Each structure stands twice: as structure tokens, then as C-alpha cells.
Amino acid sequence: MNRIDKKPLSKLGFDFVTPAFLEEGQSEFDHRNSNIDLGAYRPLAPREISILEANLNEAENWKDVWVKEGFNPYLVKNCRFFGINRIGILESCYLEFKNLRMPVGLYNSTLISCDFGDNVAIDRVNLLSHYQIGNEVMILQVNELATTATAKFGNGIVKKGEEERIRIWMELGNENGGRKVIPFVGMKPADAFLWTQDRDDTLLQAKYKEMTIQEFSSKRGFYGQIGDRTVIKNTGIIKDVNMGTDTYIKGANKLKNLTIISNAEASTQIGEGCEIVNGIIHEGCRIFYGVKAVRFILAAHSQLKYGARLINSFLGSNSTISCCEVLNALIFPAHEQHHNNSFLCAAIVKGQSNMAAGATLGSNHNSRGADGELQAGRGFWPGLSVALKHNSKFASFNLISKGNYPGEIHNPLPFSLIGNDDSEGGLLIIAGYWFQYNMYALARNAWKFAARDQRTDKDMLLEFDFLAPDTVSEILQGINLLEKWVSDSLGGGDGKAWLNDPANASNPLAVYATGIENTKRRTRIAKAHKAYQIFHDLLYYHAAKEWLATSERHPTASPSALLQATLKNATAIQVWENLGGQLIPSGVINEMKEDIKSGQITRWKQVHEFYEKQAALYPEQKFENALNGLLQINPNAFENIPAWIDRAIATADFLTAGIERSRSKDYEDPFRLAMFGNAAELDAVIGDVKENEFIQEAKMRAISFREKLEGLKNKA
């Protein structure tokens, strides 16, 4: 926001500080922010009162109106004052934001017990009650802007004198509330996920609740806060809402019981027709055009648009939901859902996900009771018009083809395409689909999610690479499953030997899996031999890639010494958990839970410090995990480093070629070419594949990767 003919004030941050409370027996509505300098205010002078009255202002008691030096009484017109009001400096200038210009001052409003910062512009606010307002704030045409005595600002607080039943819970992952959590300002997807799990551990669940209750005072009478440079215009009702600096609200219908976190570097905006109740909105969010949101948390830099409905849900950072309905869902960062006819309910989705048009995932629509659930690893992509039956569970990077799936599905095979087998009438899973047919999308999404991470406060280390500790574990499990399924399909033969025999690459053996779909239909695994080889190659490639990354983090250390030291300290392959987009070993998570139960951890701040500590350890742990993964399939892999590196380079070349090959299909498809007069017009519309920036960057990275690995091989 720019002030005309004035130097801008310094862009101060906004903290939701705890007010100072009065002694028992005093008015419950005098709990004002303790950082206000009361000495900066003075009573009105008689001449100032005369000027105010001449400008059609009224006061219950002019002695209760306090002002700073620099207050200009001529800039207050047609206002009514009740209770204690403090007014800052008012200068003869105006504020401007986008196409809105307002003169500094208070005009045509009813003001009850408020504090105003310097050079505010308030006009036509029918009721402005119990708010502390920062500097250079603009408020125009608001029907009601008030804070009540029991304001909770979106947190699951119970105030003195209130019953426990009024506490706000978010019912995540299950419509019946079996996984409900208490929302609080600062809550992360990882916190919510931890709380939704281990529901049988009553002590741990009680500790989570106790930790949350300790975050807030149960006393009544907090004043609402509106941070510096906030702009509010043409809005109906705002009640019990805290706002950070640089918040922008225009044309909203109703905002109630919210915390809106915002700052100069990441402004939060709420637009036309929105009705938002009982929520916490983090910095950099955008909410526009008829959104309905109730009992929710919106993490940083996420968006709700075009009539979206978000209820009893937590949406992770860098996500967008528009046009559709999401209920009882816990969604990790980087989720996209844009289509009016998609529906997601009772789900835990671990991020980097995309819901296509017509996808309907709802427990009370395809189960006997409204208590079914869906859980999906990161990279979950249900395709067009997919209908899944709860309870279903999917490994990472599962793509589901269009269709109705009559039974529950538990697919532990990562990087799969799942579809109905029209030829045999069963379920079909193409193993290793992404690496064989759509490497462009897989690689581009990993790059895109990282590039679009707009968080100004990257307080959690989000993993976007498709090869990471969680997928390494799933790949190892997938290798074992493929060996078992091939063995079963051979009638008890040696599945491992069959899969390792190059002669079987074109063998038409029909491979069937068990325990995938809860129906009498058979599940056929396609491309088992090819996927088996790719999974092995990926483990070689991933280990080499992490060795290179570790060497670059320690440029003065010998690459060979780093490798040997890590191998010497290597342990068995670890199980990892995706906590809100950050990967952490399950063992240390369990230790942290024990510390919570024993009382060593008593605050959520300590849990967040645990995340930060694990983020610092992650790069080295990821390297160790990559080496361990390769050891699981070849205990002697590191005895012949040149062979290991050569295989990793060959895999890198295969992946890079796959990126261009999969994208080139769009240019070679005669049906797509039929849309254009010739190939030149196709290139003009969708771009020349040879000039595709992402493909060219991938090629350059592959060349650099090869050169650096060759260097490591020579040093070793």
C-alpha cells in the first residue's frame, strides 16, 4: 500500500500476542494488547471536543476518547463513540491500494472500545467493536466488524464458563469423527497426521489434547487484531477474526471465528461472496469467488476458488482447490483439485496429488457405513470419472485409470497404473508405468512442485523427488511382491530367477497378484519383467545420485572416504513416515511419541523443533538409506564401484530419454496432428518439442550428472 505525498511507514510484522488481563471482577472486555504504550495517549482537549461535535460526532463520554499528539479532529466526522477508544495520529493525506483511495480519518461509523493506529482510513462501518487496528489500515463499507467476549479466533478453545461440548474439532480422515483433532494456530499437517494416528493409544491422545489446551488462555475478553496496511472493503460480517499485516478482504459475505495470518512478504487475500467460519488461514493464501469453508486449516500459499467447499479438512501448503467439494480430508502439500464434479471425502492424501474431473471418492456413497477411509501415498492421481470404494489404500505415485472400481483396493506397488482389465474382466496393474510410458510427467512434476514452493517460512523440509526413502522402501517391497507373484503364476517356480532372465523380457507369462482388490475378480500385473529391472536400476541410480549430492555437501572430504564411512555405519533399511510432506524415520517418530507420553515433550513447539532437527539430519540419512536400499538387492554392489556407477549413468540416460520420448508422443500422434493443418501449425500451438525448456534442462542435467559421476568413479 502506498501513501500519497507521505513516506511509507516501516513494514512492521504482526504478532498475535497475549493480551494483559485485568484483575478478577473487572470488565471482561478490557483485555487489551499489552504492548500498547498508554503513555503516548492523552485526553481530548476542550477545543478538540468542540470540533468533533461540530462535525456531527457523538460520544457516550468524551473522557473515554484518548488520542496521540498529531491527532487532527477535523478528520473525524459523523461517528459515534462508545466505551474507551484510542486514536492515533491522523494527517491530512489519503491512502491508496490498487484502485481504492480513501482519505485518512474516521467517517460515518459506530465505534465501540477500539484502538486505532496511525493514519487509518475508516468509512461507513456500521459497527466496529473491540478491535485493535494497526497503522495505515483502510476499512470501507462493512456492516459488522466485531469481537465477542468469548472469541477463539479459529482455535479449539473452551473459555471460562463454557461447556466442553462447544469445543471446535476437525474431523479428519473419517466422517464419524474417529480421527478428530483440535485445530490451533501454528498447526502443521504433520501435527494433524500424528494426532489422527494411534487412536488406540489413549495416553498419547490425551497428551495431544493437553498440549493443545496449553497453547491458549481460557480467560475471556481477547480483543481482535487487525495488522498494519490491512484493507477491508464492501464486506458483510466479520466477527471474531484476527488478521495479520497486509491482509486484503473485499466483498466477503461472512467471516467468523478465524485467524488470518498475513505479512508484507506473503499477503493473504479473501474475495467476493465467501462465507468462511471456524478456520485458520496461513500466510499467502487466496480465497475467492463464493467459497464456503467451515472447520478447516489452510496452510501457507494455498488457494480456494470458484465455489469450492472445504469442510472439516486440512489443506497443505502450495495447494489449490476450486469448484469442488472436499470433506473430512487431511491433504499434504502440493495438491491440485480444479473440477466442479470431483469429490473427496474421508481421505488422507500425502501430497503431490491431483484429482481429475468426475473423480468421486466418498465413503458414504459406496460403503455400508459412513466410516470408511481412503489413504494414499504422495503422487496420487485418480483419473477422469474414477469411483473408488472405501476402504482403499495406495502406495506412492499411483495413477488410476477412468472407471468404476467395485471393490476396495490395497495396492502396495509404487509407480503403478491401475485400471479395469476389459479383456479379462478383472483389475489390471501396469507395474513401473511412469518410467515406461510417462517419464515426462513424473520428472516435470517433481521439478514443478519444488519450483512452485512459495513458502516464505520453509519450516518443514518437503520432499518432492520421486526417489526418496519412502519410495525406496516401496520399491524394495515391490521387488519382493513381483518375485512372489511370478512364482505363484509359475506354479511354485523360481520367480526371482525368471525375472532376472533377459530371455523372459518378451515372455507372455500371465502374472496375477493376490490381496489387491476385495472382489472375486483376478488382478493381472502387466510389464512385471520390465518393472522388475527398472526397480533394480533405480536403486543403483538413487544410491549414486545421493553419493554425488553428499560429496558436493562435503567438498573437502574424499568421496571414497564418505562412501566407506557411510557403509561402515549402515544399518538395516529403515521404515520411513511421511509427516505432512517431510520424511522422517519411523523409529525416531516413535521415540518422540514416547517422550510426549512420558512428559519430556509438553508443547507443540518442541514437536516442531523435532521436525527441524530431523530436517537437518535428513540429507545424510537419505544417503545412508539409498546405500542400504542397494545393499538389499546386491550386498556386493560397492565392491565394484565402476560397474555400479556405469549402471547408474545408464539409468540416468534411460530416464532422460524417457522424458523426451513420452513428450514426443504428443507430436507423433496422428489424431492430435489431425487438429492442425500441418506439423508446423502444431508446433506453433503447443511448441516445438525440440525447444521444450524442461526437456532441454533435463538433458543438460543428465550431461552434468554423467560428468560428475565419472569424476567420482575416477577418484574412488
TrEMBL record:
Provide the DUF4954 domain boundaries: 41-484
Q: What is this protein called?
A: DUF4954 family protein
Which organism does this record belong to? Aquirufa originis
